Structure formats: structure tokens, C-alpha cells
Amino acid sequence: MGETKYIFVTGGVASSLGKGIISSSIGKLLQARGYKVTIQKFDPYINIDPGTLNPYEHGECYVTVDGHEADLDLGHYERFLGIQTTKANNITTGRIYKSVIDKERRGDYLGKTIQVIPHVTDEIKRNVKLLGNKYKFDFVITEIGGTVGDIESLPYVESIRQLKWELGKDALCVHLTYVPYLAAAGELKTKPTQHSVKELQSAGIQPDILVLRAEHELSAGLRKKVALFCNVDENAVVQSIDAPTIYEVPILMQAQGLDETILRKMGLPIGETPGLGPWRTFLERRHKAEQTEPVHIALVGKYDLQDAYKSIREALSQAGTYNDCKVEVDFVNSETLTDDNVEEALKGMAGVVIGPGFGQRGIEGKFVAIKYTRTHDIPTFGICLGMQCIAIEFARNVLGYKDANSREMDEKTPHNVIDIMEEQKAITNMGGTMRLGAYECTLEKGSKVYEAYKTEHIQERHRHRYEFNNDFKAQYEAAGMKCTGINPESGLVEIVEIPALKWFIGTQFHPEYSSTVLNPHPLFVSFIKAAINK
């Protein structure tokens, strides 16, 4: 195809309109036409990455295969496109400024005065083009976080302006805005969109395509009005109304010719409209599954926020579709769980997920939930800290070590069944002590996890600091908890399970990160199957 084409996705009026879903949908449609596509996210905050952010601030922290802590939108990119993203797919203002300052300290700028323009904008532009230059993608879609008009987004908007000028037809801007419905007037209002586009134009960018986010259908007249006021072709004004599921969005965008408009504006052949066969099959199956009696899964954790466990929720939902059932995820706050209320809290649950996390808060409630599910044989899936909690609860209530704990929670515990590795103890930097990214794991033949994966060697993504303490391994195995997944290089335990129970598994890694629409994760599929059978 020659030169890489660049698509910029910006947002106006309000945040959280779904730029990540629109970016993923555009990527999916272009990918279906045979193009090699990737998507990157530029976040305007000054943190180097979301790794140290509280999930209440920014939702879950997603981890790429190369061990980068990234924005949750990268999860959408991977789930929609079935691609693997890397550190280069998520850039923050913190990373940009750090890079510029490091260069300045090394003397790379030869004594120049360092300024936002050209030095910061040049660094942004370098990162925009990095993936295209290195891997020769046909399309690089760049999503700019935040809202046009935010003070922190200005350097990104200026960089887009320069790139559009430099790249000509090889760059295009898709602007997503909100069209509110005023119930009192019974009208949809386009004024916020007009102001948002004016804001973009005042920064020197004319959007090529407008995607209008709305809760109600937009009439042809309203879209014509927006096109007229915003200097955009009529067929380049697309509506994005609420859909039953985010996975419907590519179909809705294709029906309005969004991919065709992009190709036309970039001077590329239109060709035949792709059928999106496997995607439509998934949606049909999902639609049928949604008509069934829901299977209730309790998600036990401390963050009462949908986005805090985004990938887990999506993996459970996908597993439901592939088991032809509707999965209803019920959040159970571990901070309020006690022996007295656990039966009530988990009543009617077909399965329980013990969520990941860091720190002491809410951990005792997780032990309560695990003890209840273990003694009542309810399918249980512990992820990361959830797996560590499974090990601690077993040590306390089966092995008889009442003071068993993780060194993370109790420095002085004599029964440190979860501990930090020796080589990590000297590292003080918050990010430096983590096991991050994809690691190998060998599964024990005949185990439940082996049955699920149907292979002996797997690779899964990690994000944790503490490990299962192998000094206690023999005691666990003798008492009925098996270590069925081991890292071949370090001998570290990756998976524990209790074979005597229906489905009771804990993983040190985060399987949810690698579950996609067309390739659901085998552990989640197996877990939901066990929950249905219960």
C-alpha cells in the first residue's frame, strides 16, 4: 500500500463517550478489508503510566505482553482486533516529557532552549509515527485521551495539526462529540457539537469525519445541519447511538459507511464491503445467549467501579456467549463480607471470582468468601491476589496455620506462604519489583487447567510483586491443593487447584488480558461451564 496512513480520533463536549470503542471499530473494519492495522492511545496525564494510579482514578491497569502497564483502552483494541499491543501503543505526557528532559540532560539538543513547540510536539510526532515506521502498518489509529479544549491536550492537538499539514491525504481526523437530548424541550441539541468543532478549528484542525454520540436516533435533517455548521461532508457525519453491546458498534459503523468514507477521503480503493462473518456469528450467538436465564457470578473485590475490573467482566461475558448463556456479574464488596453475612451475599451465585488488587484493604472479606466457596464446593476462580488469598485461606483453615499471610500484609508472619522473591527485596522503586508481562508456564497433565487449555505449555501476562512460597509446597500438595502450573525457568508456582472440588483454581497471572471476541480465554470458558453445571 506504500506509505502508512494515520487516523486521529479526538473527543469533544465530554469524556467517556467511547473514543476507544470507535477507534477499535474503525480498526476492525479496516482490518476486515485486509489492511494491517494497529491502534495507540495518547493519555494527557503526567504519570509515566497508569501502573501507580488508583483504579478509581482511571479504571483498570491493562498489561501488554512486553510488560507495559497501560490504559484500559488497549484491552478494547486487543479484544476487537485480536492483535497484541506493546509499550509503543500507549504514551503519556509523563513519558513524552521524561524523554525530552532526558535528551536535554544528555545534551542532544545542542544547547537549544527547550520549548513545547517544537521539542515536545516533535517528540509526540515521533511517537505517533514510530509504529508505522518500524512495523510498516497500513493504518495507525491514534486515540487522544481527554477532551478537546483541555489545557493538557493542547500539545497533542498541535502535533495533529502539524502532522495533518505534513502528511496531507495520509492523515485524517475523526472527531467524536455528544448530542444531548433535552427532555423538557423534547429536542436533541447540536450546539455543544458546533462549539467543540469550533474549538478544534481554532487550534487549526478541520475534522474530516464527525461521529455523534447520542441516546436517541438522529434525523437526516439534524445531521445535515451539523455537516453545514461544521464544514464536514454530509456522508461524513455518522451517529453512534447506544447499542445493546459494544461489540455491535463495528456493525453499526459499517452500515453507515464509515470505513468507506475513510478510504475515499484517503484516496484508497473502496472494494467490496466485508461480510464480517465470524464477528456476526459471535453477535448472533451472543444475542441468543442474552435470552437465556442468567448465570450469576459474584465478583469479590474492593473496587465498586465497573472499569476497575473491565477485562474480567468482558472475559466472563465472552465465556458466557461461547457457553450459550447469559452471564450476570454481581459485584460483592469484600470490605463488608463477614462470616455472618457471606451466605446471604453469595446466595444464588453459580460461581465466584476472587478479584486481583494490591494492599490490605478488603482482604479479610476475600478469605471469608474463599472459605465459604471451598466448603460449599462453589466453582471459584482466584486471579492474581485472588490466587494468593486462596493459598492463605487454605494455610489458615486446612493446614492449621492461623497466622498464615502474605509478607505484603504482614511483614512478621512466621507462615509467609506468599512472599517476595529474594532478588526483589533490595529494589525500592514501586514499578521495579513487579513481575510484568508474559511468562511461560508448564501445566500438569490431567489437571483441570490442562483440560481447559488442551496443551502443556502456555504463556500468560503477570502484574504482581509477591509469589507463592515454595517452602510450603509439599504441605499444600499433601493436604489436597495441587500446584498444577509452574514457571519452567524459576520454578515459581503459577497455578493452584483443588482437584477434589468441582472447579477451584487460582492463577498468579491475569488470564483476562488475553481473552478476545473471537478467541475467548479457555480458563474463563471452562469456569463458566462449571458454573452452569452447578
General form: globular
Terminal Cα span: 53 Å
What's the overall average pLDDT, rounded? 94
Main structural class: alpha/beta
Q: Please bin the fraction of helical residues.
A: 25-40%
Parts with pLDDT < 50 across at least 5 consecutive residues: none
Structural Rg:
25 Å
> Main sheet, how many strands, which sense, barrel?
9 strands, mixed
Number of strands: 23
Explain this structure.
- α14 links the parallel β14 and β15.
- This protein starts with a strand and ends with a helix.
- α1 crosses α9, α4 packs across α5 and α5 crosses α6.
- It is 37% helix and 21% strand.
- It contains 18 helices and 23 strands.
- It has a 9-stranded mixed beta sheet, sandwiched between helices. Strands 5-2-6-1-7-10-11 form a 7-stranded parallel beta sheet, sandwiched between helices.
- The chain is an alpha/beta fold and 534 residues long.
